Amino acid sequence: QPTKGKQRRISVTEGICSLCKRCDDNPEKYGEKITLQQHNLTVHYFCLLMSSGICQRGEEDEDVHGFLVDDIKKEIRRSSRLRCMKCKKVGASVGCSIKSCRQMVHMPCGLEQDFIFQFTDLFPSFCKKHAPSQTCVSSPSLPLSCSVCLEPIEPILSYNVLKCPACHGSWFHRNCVQHYAHSAAMFFFKCTLCNNKDQFQQEMLRMGIYIPERDAAWELEENAYEDLLQVYQHCDAVKCHSHKGRKYSSQSGYFEIVRCKLCGSRGTHRKCSNLKLYESDWICGDCKAAVEGKMPLPNHVESPLAIRQQRKRLFKNISDLHSSLISKRQCVAATSPEVLMDLAHQISQQQSTEVLVEDDDGVLEAALWVLRQSDFNPCCTLSVKFSQDKHSNNIRSQRRFLRRLVSKLQMSEIFEGPDGSKNLALNSKALRDDLYFEVGSLLALSLVHGGPPVGFFSPALYHSLFNYPTNYRPTLQDLGDTAFIAEAKSMKELRMAMQSASQYLEAAGCWRKIRELSEKDMLVEDVLNFYLIIRLQLPLQRFREGLRTLGLFEQVQMCTEAFHSVFCGPVERLTAESVMELFTVRFSEEKEQQEKENTTVDFWKKYLHECEEGRCAASLEDLLTFITATDSAPSIGFHPTPSISFFSSPDPSCAFPQSHCDASHLFLPMLPSYELFKKHLDYTVCQFTGMLLSLYNVTFLLK
């Protein structure tokens, strides 16, 4: 096609690429091979994309898809000094994107050396040592075959064997899925088993599969759907009255051919079957007999349209079968704490990331600042320091930080709705700043690093993210300001409600004429679909990407039921029984001592029940914060398990409880009476939580 300067760019099957020095013309592997005759220059498009020393500085229609000729020649000169680690020849223009790695290859040589080329963002390349990899979280079910070629496949993830990240049931040969992607392209490339598109495409791009940004190959074939434009044009009446023959059909009138409304494969002139001019419904003799049960269905040749419709129904049945197979597979039998604990094994205790926080109000700003650092690693332990906390304890500071962080995230501008039931809000500034990704990433970090349950997602948001429950239907509470449409009880009220929200309905594509009140339900369903899904596609996508931090999103997809209570509120309030179940009591071996310890345990249980009933100065949340530095059990659970031990003092009036939050351990004094036990425990907890002066007066303390 013509380009700038009247130079001509043509695709050729001969000629050597100036970068890789190969003459192969394989668009699927190397991209389009392009020759600029005026400059005597031939290059593979992928060789240009992956070259480390060139960037696209021109418009898309300039030179080679925006790569300027002068820049290409500079890159050729640069690479002429670099030797390929595979073929040992000069001209290696592609390098591993890890700065410390010196691996250099020609692009085709890189494919042979298991390089992964990511066709997204800055088009990075990774050598075999630094290439991204997949993980298998569940045991594959037999029999196993490639979901494209259907040939047997060994379920061991490698460079040549990939799997779907959504259903974990589809396995692919790399060459097969690349051929499939090249044919289906961006609009039709999806998992062949679960039909997931977004997550599947993102994962395949990450693993080096090239997905063309065009329509599918079968859509680009010339006259590919020509047969759909053909209709049956033949009069099959016993006696045809048309002087121009049975194939003649006028635009209208008695000699217009009318086709059978059931099969479409028989026709007649109106005149030949005594049809009136306004009649267009006609049934052929075969179909009429079959409908009336007088003979089996006709065995005549189907029209091309009927064949395609039958094929479409077949594909839908196959898709439904796949869905039913997926739903019948055994889910991973794991609780949310078990899953989070497995993910937490990624966290290195030897490396830490320092988080400096001014105060509780600056928690979110501090977290975002750390997350946005180029060298941030989510696998490092969080070392949190509050500037106003002189006696810093890392476990206590970390749990305080994560508790305040989740609370701040709930109030973020990317969420809307009542407390404890938040949906995503559409915020253009947050999209521009990629805040959806960052908040999702912070929530994932909080859960895996031992933070509290999220507890504020609405069921609609959880369903949008993880498709659980599968039969969930949005409610009017999810609709926001346009819910008044559903409250209309008459046609007059409905029209008034629609008129007041006309601009919103038009923007949502839901504006229509309503003739009956019964059509209101369908309108509300369409508005709900737009409000919760369509308008939030990009925010949901970025939010999901953030939740992928440390592999959380994929694990939640495998155990959606177990994680529902973690993400959706309300968080269960503490009770005396639930607090008692958290703790393991460490008794001494001496029987005499055990009797005193059992008495103290009875005091402890009584104190918990009085806390629950509000008859103590401290609450159960205050008590748990004193012992473990958090007012609720972390989603990952306590590690180690909270425990209680005992000590005695020669002076009971000076024996106060002590805690060791690093080990979630409580030291209880063995005191002679419950009143003294309660007084000392109240005093200690209130002093720790800063409520001493507000709850106790000096006179009471001196008694």
UniProtKB/TrEMBL annotation:
GO CC, any one term: nucleus
Record keywords: Metal-binding, Nucleus, Transferase, Ubl conjugation pathway, Zinc, Zinc-finger
**Domain of life of the organism in this record?**
Eukaryota
PHD-type domain spans which residues? 14-131
Molecular function per GO: ubiquitin-protein transferase activity; zinc ion binding
Q: Does the keyword Transcription regulation apply?
A: no
One matching Pfam family, short form?
PHD_G2E3
HECT domain location, by residue?
A: 623-694
Location relative to the cell:
Nucleus
InterPro entries in the cross-refs: EPHD, HECT_dom, Hect_E3_ubiquitin_ligase, PHD-type_Zinc_Finger, PHD_PHF7/G2E3-like, PHF7/G2E3_ePHD, Znf_FYVE_PHD, Znf_PHD
Hydrolase among the record's keywords? Answer: no
Pathway assignment: Protein modification; protein ubiquitination
Can you say what this protein is called? G2/M-phase specific E3 ubiquitin protein ligase
